[in-house]
Specification:
- This protein is mainly α.
- The protein is built from 4 helices and 2 strands, in the order H-E-H-H-H-E.
- It has helices spanning 14-29, 40-57, 71-74, 84-91; strands at residues 35-36, 99-100.
- The chain is globular and about 40 Å long.
- Helix content is 43%, strand content 4%.
- Bound molecules: iron/sulfur cluster.
Length: 107
């Protein structure tokens, strides 16, 4: 028998983890000049990828980056990753296309 309680992440349905990821990132966005990509389908796909990583790898890791297995190193790619600020400021968008900055131009 699995030694888990209903509160543990692996017991939560994917949709619930997705909701929690989205809520946390929405809250983070209120403290930044950034926003979600205006393409809702992109946001949905990336949030799903983050939620899957949370379930399978234990934290809300970037779905577009490779995990090293070193917890300290991998903490850099918990979304929003440490690289996102530079990416958004330089390109208007983060690597995964989840967040855009005021300088973002679609198309
Ligand atoms: S690239 Fe974007 S989606 Fe991926 S962790 Fe960084 S901020 Fe999050």
């Amino acid at each position: 028998m699995k030694n888990t309680t209903p509160e543990t992440t692996e017991e939560k349905p994917l949709e619930q983890v997705e909701r929690e990821v989205r809520e946390r990132l929405e809250e983070w966005l209120t403290r930044t000049p950034y926003s979600f990509n205006p393409e809702a389908s992109v946001v949905k796909t990336i949030i799903r990828g983050i939620a899957i990583r949370k379930i399978k790898a234990g934290d809300e890791y970037c779905p577009c980056r490779v995990l090293s297995g070193d917890l300290r190193e991998d903490s850099k790619i918990v979304c929003p990753c440490v690289y996102s600020k530079d990416e958004i400021e330089n390109d208007g968008i983060c690597l995964c296309h989840l967040f855009v900055g005021p300088n973002y131009k679609s198309g």
